[in-house]
Amino acid sequence: MSKLDELEALAKAATPGPWRNSEERPLLCVTVGIPADSPRWNGRNDAAFIAAANPATVLDLIELIRAMGPYVNAMIATASYVKPAISDRLDAALAKLEDSKQ
Hints:
Layout: H1 3-13, H2 43-52, H3 55-101
Helix pairs in contact: 1-3
C-alpha cells in the first residue's frame, strides 16, 4: 500500500467533521513527541493544523495529486527526451565561450 493509499484510507475512516479548533476545551488529544513545557511545543498551532488537515481536505489533496500524475509523467518524459539535445548545445556553447576567453 502506498503512502497515498494509506493516507486515503485513514482519511476515509476518520470522523467526517466539520473539524474546528476549540480553545475552550480539548476535543482530541494528540501526542507530538515533545514535552508540553518545551519551547518548541505550540499546542494552539498544532490544533489549528490538525483541524485544517481534516479528512475532506486530505481527500481533496489526494485527488489533486492523482489527477496531476499523468501531467507529471508527461513532463518527465519530455525532459528525458529534450535533455540530451540541450546538454549537447550547452556543452558546445560553453566550449566556445572558453575558446573566446583565450
